[in-house]
Design goal:
With about 425 residues, this protein is mainly alpha-helical. It is about 70% helix and about 5% strand. The strands form two sheets. A two-stranded antiparallel sheet has the order 1-2. The chain has a two-stranded antiparallel sheet with strand order 3-4. The protein is globular and about 60 Å long. Mean pLDDT is about 85; it is low at about 1-20 and about 425-429.
């Protein structure tokens, strides 16, 4: 009898759930609640969400089991913590404000530790398949939240959705569409994951509706990173699926590669038709041109200027790093002048080239294991699903600071934890 299933008897017909079983149930409930809030309502309720993450990590830690993969990830965490502590000291001695030092401590040291614990516990408590089913369900909920947001704003006005974001806005005019919804950050990962491995949805109706809904949602989001996540996910899936499994026949391999392409084409046609029906003033060609111009210009004029200023700062420190909490001549935020959107360049400015490589070490380890399984034909469909979301989110860090958000860090840590927690037979980590 397992700990979760064990019960104690107190007289005839009286049963009491074992405390360890209750703890496991509570932990699973907290894990799923944390994922639901962070995916569907990111940053809408920051303080309660932060408290939920802390409480969930505490209970997850009580039942956490060591593993070789977790040990590797913790080594990368300790190395990153050492780099952060060193460059916080460098920044502080060079005049970095206390607010910056405190934020860096929370975002670079506390939040990653909490998410490593939560990500590992998700794998140990739920497993890969249940976690993917949860994420697919939350994709549906996220799509529904976008529809409700548009409807509420356009019908009842700004105040009806202000509780989700202070600067709530929907713009559907001049052939353009966009909304200030924070759930679009989550949908970068969810969209990339789905288009990398769409066959994980079992429902035939769902296979038709979800891709069309994701494409329509991306087009009306006004977020280039979300639009770009769809082809990134598709390309990642197309590449990785070619080495999906040993023993597949040529016909099975061809079908596996063709199905996502057919779904992509059908979804694109369906999504465009739905948009033209709902928003008659929407100009798809205009949106495509705006997206292409932004893509080819490196994210627009503001990000180009930001990149130039960050490069100058990197050169001034000879790639050794200025320290956390210090900025350059380019001011992106009056409230937080040390924060930038181009995270790779911002990291090199703060902690230098070597420090940035240390920060990237868990993802380098992840890419190494993914490559190893790719070469050995040991990839699973779930591996491909998580890889699509991870690479879409990783590309978004070149224009958006999602990884510096304590709520959005799940997009980066969960795929890494998931890949190594369940090994294919015969593989050693």
């Amino acid at each position: 009898m397992t700990a979760e299933a064990s019960v104690s008897m107190r007289g005839p017909g009286h049963r009491t759930v074992d405390e360890r079983g209750f703890l496991a149930l509570l932990t699973k409930t907290l894990l799923m609640a944390t994922m639901a809030v962070c995916v569907v309502l990111p940053h809408s309720f920051q303080v309660p969400t932060a408290a939920l993450i802390v409480v969930t990590a505490f209970f997850a830690l009580l039942g956490l089991k060591r593993s070789p993969w977790l040990d590797k990830l913790m080594l990368t965490y300790y190395a990153g913590t050492a780099v952060t502590a060193l460059y916080e000291w460098v920044g502080y001695t060079n005049g970095a404000p206390n607010d910056a030092i405190n934020q860096v401590f929370l975002v670079y040291i506390i939040a990653p530790l909490l998410w490593w614990i939560i990500s590992t516990s998700l794998m140990q408590r739920l497993g890969q398949e249940r976690l993917v089913r949860l994420l697919i369900f939350l994709t549906w909920v996220s799509l529904a939240s976008v529809v409700l947001f548009f409807y509420a704003f356009l019908t009842f006005g700004r105040d009806s959705v202000r509780f989700l974001t202070e600067d709530a806005n929907v713009n559907v005019s001049g052939g353009f569409a966009g909304a200030t919804m924070l759930v679009y950050g989550s949908m970068i990962f969810l969209g990339g994951s789905y288009f990398a491995e769409p066959t994980l949805i079992k429902s035939r109706l769902g296979k038709l509706i979800m891709p069309a809904a994701l494409i329509a949602c991306a087009i009306t989001s006004g977020r280039s990173a979300f639009i770009l996540a769809i082809p990134i996910g598709y390309i990642v899936g197309l590449v990785l699926r070619s080495r999906l499994a040993v023993g597949m026949t040529a016909a099975e391999r061809k079908q596996t590669s063709l199905l996502p392409t057919l779904i992509m084409l059908a979804a694109g046609a369906g999504g465009l038709f739905a948009l033209s029906f709902i928003f008659s003033q929407l100009d798809i060609r205009l949106i495509a041109n705006l997206f292409w111009d932004k893509l080819t210009s490196g994210g627009g004029d503001l990000r180009t200027e930001q990149a130039r200023a960050l490069w100058e700062g990197i050169e001034q420190s000879y790639g050794m790093g200025h320290g956390h909490g210090l900025g350059v001549r380019y001011l992106r935020s009056d409230e937080f002048p040390w924060r930038y959107e181009l995270i790779p360049l911002a990291s090199m400015l703060r902690v230098g080239v070597f420090g940035t490589l240390v920060y990237m070490s868990p993802f380098i380890v992840y890419a190494g294991l993914l490559s190893q399984r790719f070469a050995a034909r040991r990839l699973t469909r779930i591996d491909i699903y998580f890889a699509g979301g991870f690479f879409a989110a990783a590309m978004a860090t070149f224009t958006n600071p999602y990884i510096e958000s304590f709520i959005f860090q799940w997009m980066f840590f969960i795929p890494v934890a998931a890949l190594g927690m369940q090994n294919p037979p015969g593989e050693q980590l």
